[in-house]
Amino acid sequence: MFTGLVQDLGSVAEIETGDEGVRLIVRTTLADEISLGDSVAVNGVCLTATSIADGAFSADVMNESLRRTSLGSVGQGSTVNLELPLRAADRLGGHFVQGHVDGVATVREAVDDGFARVVTFDAPADLLRYIVEKGSIAVDGVSLTVSAVDESSFSVSLIPETLERTTLGAAEPGRPVNLEVDVLAKYVEKLAR
């Protein structure tokens, strides 16, 4: 379980590609806090640390995750959002994020609005039904509040702290991002059936 509060911007040091999937090697200041088998959210995707050495960890990304997330488009040198799992005694500053990506959206536009930046994403219809104005959403693992939603897209307003501390500060049109809708919305829909 995560909160969607990014703890570090990691750098993809190496990618090992095979038929069974991909192994990512990510450099991070968090490496000393990670143990073998720990979960690490990488751009919102919950991965398992398979090795830790020299300020980096590795994680295997299976084909299923490559199909359902934007991790397949990450290259060597890419910057990624990183978060370690929530501890029972930690404050919950974002919202409950599982690291189970529901789908991929695409940045439509990013427009400055005072000191903030409004980023609009084109999203699949099957996910938009869970997205509501002023509701929670995780975009590339970042806990955000939806500022607007219509039949094909949604927007978020990013404060300078988010722009500086996450990859969303460099969001450009056409960029794919991982989406995890609020799990509570999915449960409410199921109970309403």
Automatic annotation (TrEMBL):
Superkingdom of the source species: Bacteria
UniProt keyword list: Repeat, Riboflavin biosynthesis, Transferase
One function term, GO molecular function aspect: riboflavin synthase activity
Lumazine-binding domain segment(s): 1-95, 96-192
Quaternary context: Homotrimer.
EC number(s) recorded for this UniProt protein: 2.5.1.9
Name of the protein in question: Riboflavin synthase
Biological-process GO terms, alphabetical: riboflavin biosynthetic process
Family annotation (CDD domains): Riboflavin_synthase_like
One Pfam family per UniProt: Lum_binding
InterPro entries (UniProt xref): ATP_synth_asu-like_sf, Lumazine-bd, Lumazine-bd_dom, Riboflavin_synthase-like_b-brl
Pathway(s) the chain acts in: Cofactor biosynthesis; riboflavin biosynthesis; riboflavin from 2-hydroxy-3-oxobutyl phosphate and 5-amino-6-(D-ribitylamino)uracil: step 2/2
Lumazine-binding repeats: 1-95, 96-192
